[in-house]
Model the fold of this input.
Amino acid sequence: MQKTLILAGLVIIVVGLGWPWLSKLPLGRLPGDIVIDKPGFKLFFPVTSMLLVSGLVTLLMWLLRK
Done:
């Protein structure tokens, strides 16, 4: 558990330091992301972005377990 918390903290630090570059990635603006924008109402549902992130996290976890 201690190693997991330390690793999670390091990941958060790396993401925080790399945020200026990470914010330029097209996550949230991919084809398949649903955006409904009407006057007084905005719905954003990033289907494709969620699938991509889930796949990357799954691959990373699979590689770390080996």
Notes: DSSP finds three helices and two strands in the chain. The chain has a mean pLDDT of 90.
